[in-house]
Amino acid sequence: MHKISANRKRLFTFILLGWVLLLIGDRIGELRQYQGAFVAMYALAIASIILLTGYSGQLSLGHSALMAVGAYAGALSINNLKLNPVIALIVAALVAGIFGLILGIAAARLSGPYLAGTTLALAISLPTIANQFTILGGEQGILFDIGAPPARFGEGFSQYKWFFWISSLAALIMIWMISNLLHSKFGRVFRALRDNQTAAQLAGINIGRQKAVAFGLSAGVAGLAGGLLVMLISGVSPSAFPLSLSFSLLTGAVVTGVYDLKGVMLGGLVLVAIPEIADSIGSRVGGSDGFTMALPGFLVSALLILAVLFLPNGPGKLLKKKM
């Protein structure tokens, strides 16, 4: 009974949050709607890292590559297979999940810096590989168009509000599913892998298989986030998924608290706010174009260092200690 009530409580919480987001979306301008869609996308990508690193103990430095796999799969589904954009986002998650599962099986024997190095190499090499295939559009990439909002929503329903609705709904549903998963038997198995692999193996847990499953699930969530990202920028190309994106997501996860999903929206807000803060600083300081372009990366790096030093478990843990 307690488990059922906990599940209902989480469902009620997510429905309430969705209703709040719906109200917010109707009361903000198009720019904030567009930024809100990015917050939801980043929150989903951060959730994929928390699932992999915070719960199963596997460190990935190449989640931008997993996002790219889902992004290309979604774009090709729309352009070549003429699938509905919503179905294309599901395809993006499935293809990235399968890719991550295969990668997880191959990397099941790796851990710590070896796994991190492997994913880092993937993130670096994937753009070069993508440029070699004409079906992927080369350096120019391919378009990703979800089309106009449904006519039944009325003429006042803008494209930016449509982006906000799709991104928020996708993020809420997926994060709710991840939360349920982590409160189930699989979540306990993943935490056992993270805390003590030897003890987990003695308890009868297949370490390699569970690592691969965790990697595949994380990659699927990252692939959905990648599909949402290229929906927002209306195209997919290797330049949309630089290595810096992986480090930004890792920063967002550390700021959020890598062992807890509750603050993923905070991480998304931080990543959306950093470019605006950098632009504001650049305009006031009056630096060169190179300085302005490098400033967001510097702010991300500084924030990551500060978070590791002062809030390694996220702001939630600090609040609990004070209470």
Q: What general outline do the C-alpha atoms trace?
A: globular
> Beta-strand level of the residues, as a percent range?
under 5%
Number of strands: 2
CA(first)-CA(last) distance: 29 Å
Low-confidence stretches: 318-323
Structure overview:
The protein is built from 13 helices and two strands. The protein is an all-alpha fold. It has helices spanning 2-27, 30-56, 63-79, 85-106, 113-130, 159-182, 185-195, 197-202, 207-233, 243-256, 264-285, 289-310, 315-322; strands at 142-143, 235-236. The chain has one domain (2-322): ABC transporter involved in vitamin B12 uptake, BtuC. Strands 1-2 form a two-stranded antiparallel ribbon. The protein is globular and about 60 Å long. Helix 3 (63-79) packs parallel to helix 5 and helix 4 (85-106) runs antiparallel to helix 9.
List the defining traits of the structure above.
323 residues, ABC transporter involved in vitamin B12 uptake, BtuC, 13 helices, disordered C terminus, globular, single chain, mainly alpha, 1% strand
Outline the fold blueprint.
Layout: H1 2-27, H2 30-56, H3 63-79, H4 85-106, H5 113-130, E1 142-143, H6 159-182, H7 185-195, H8 197-202, H9 207-233, E2 235-236, H10 243-256, H11 264-285, H12 289-310, H13 315-322
Antiparallel strand pairs: 1-2
Helix pairs in contact: 1-6, 2-6, 2-7, 2-9, 2-10, 2-11, 3-4, 3-5, 3-9, 4-9, 6-9, 10-11, 10-12, 11-12
